[in-house]
Design a protein that fits this description.
This protein has eleven helices and 26 strands. The protein has 428 residues and is an alpha+beta fold. Strand 2 and strand 3 form a beta hairpin. The longest helix has 17 residues.
């Protein structure tokens, strides 16, 4: 999975540091490739590194950062595929930098198409017409022109306004301050940024408008906008739908109280929504599971888990007891299930802490890798849900129960009936 960004500023304004910030707000735990290219004085200045952007950018020497200054630039972070941006020169002395969100095959085909053109816009149009695999791209010429394009709906791309500039980005919100999201780039169109603003041009008459459902479910940041709505509100609705589903299950005890917990951060807003479904559900943020990740290529491995609430046991000197979880019924809420390893770890910890029951719910269950390269999963492990019911998954994970939203309820909870979603990775 890749993320791309492009920023165009007025002359005299440097974008390199902004590029690094924009990329750092879009990374995932297994991203291991970072690339930035800036344009200045008719030249493209590359900076491509292997490593997480927050790590490699902290090692930049001030003199190196100064040499990378420019008023426009494009950037790329990814866990797989080619090291980008890719660079090429035309016979007229122009140079292009290209960053592509797509499979490795799509990346190679797009770069080849653009590098055969004499102008950047012609190259992007050529790529849109010749490459049928889903992709989104942002390309830049040595003259400072930036062009973005979206082949179909499965790869996100947004355009927005900055103070004295414009941006293109995989995610709608790339900077915490000073950025105004305008709209998503329409599938089949190209966007050209400039000091004057931007221009739109439709180049494909017929395109697939299916959006990647994982973008809404867990790939986008909570503060971003999807389908005219905040991602945060969409995820709260998903959680509330899960809570209502839980209430109708035969094992639900109307006389009991359930403690609702997120795992680890992806389930935050769904957990809030779940707890709002009934007064029996209590969401306690102070009892959250804590988790840290170490960056291992392609495999995000949790290296430390901890539960709050451990205190010395008054009745058994030298031992500890847990005031949050002992004797409690727990519902662990996550945004999606892949291998189930996190649920197993958290279930074991909660049982050790004295929990009476541990249930699991997720918004979705994935059965296969995304054929278009939009995975945010741990691809070093196999999906657990293929062809299995919630009851069968619960048995495999050692949970009291496990449930996830049926497809129709999931689509309804998104609140965007005007959109068509791609669900090829899910177990439906």
């Amino acid at each position: 999975m890749s993320r791309i960004v492009g920023i165009s500023r007025e002359k005299g304004r440097d974008v390199f540091v902004e590029m690094l910030l924009a990329l750092s707000l879009q990374i995932f735990a297994n991203d291991e490739m970072t690339g930035v290219a800036t344009a200045r004085d008719g030249q493209i200045i590359p900076w491509v590194k292997r490593g997480v952007v927050t790590s490699v950018s902290s090692k930049i020497h001030p003199e190196e950062a100064k040499s990378l200054m420019g008023n426009c630039g494009i950037g790329y972070v990814s866990s797989c595929g080619l090291m980008m941006p890719e660079f090429c020169e035309t016979g007229d002395g122009l140079a292009f930098a290209v960053a592509v969100d797509g499979s490795e095959i799509a990346q190679k085909q797009v770069v080849a198409a653009i590098c055969k053109a004499t102008t950047l816009r012609d190259g992007v149009i050529r790529a849109m017409k010749q490459v049928s695999i889903p992709f989104a791209l942002i390309a830049m010429s040595s003259l400072g022109e930036i062009v973005g394009a979206r082949r179909d709906g499965r790869k996100p791309l947004s355009v927005g306004k900055l103070d004295g500039g414009m941006y293109l980005s995989s995610q709608s919100g790339i900077l915490d301050q000073g950025a105004e999201f305008l709209h998503s780039v329409w599938p089949g169109e190209i966007i050209t940024l400039g000091t004057y603003g931007y221009q739109r041009k439709a180049v494909l008459p017929v395109v697939d408008h299916s959006r990647c459902i994982d973008e809404v479910l867990f790939l986008q940041r909570p503060g971003n906008i999807c389908g005219g709505q905040s991602v945060e509100k969409i995820r709260i609705r998903e959680g509330r739908a899960l809570g209502k589903l839980f209430l109708g299950l035969p094992f639900f005890n109307e006389d009991a109280e359930y403690l609702i917990m997120q795992i680890p951060d992806g389930g935050n807003y769904p957990a809030i929504g779940f707890a709002s479904a009934h007064s029996f559900f209590k969401y306690d943020s102070s009892a959250q599971v804590k988790c840290r990740y170490v960056n291992v290529p392609n495999v995000p491995l949790p290296v430390k888990y901890s539960l709050n609430g451990w205190i010395p046991d008054q009745e058994n000197p030298g031992k500890m007891t847990n005031i949050y979880f002992k004797g409690k019924r727990i519902v662990l809420v996550d945004d999606g299930l892949w291998s189930g390893s996190k649920l197993i770890h958290f279930r074991k910890m909660l049982e050790q802490a004295g929990a009476l029951e541990v249930h699991g719910v997720t918004v979705t269950v994935s059965c296969r890798s995304c054929p278009y390269g939009n995975d945010g999963h741990d691809l070093g492990s196999a999906p657990i849900g293929m062809g299995k019911s919630g009851q069968e998954i619960a048995k495999l994970l050692g949970l009291a129960s496990f449930n996830f939203l049926p497809e129709e309820e999931l689509i309804d909870s998104l609140g965007t009936p005007h959109r068509i979603y791609c669900t090829e990775c899910l177990c439906y």
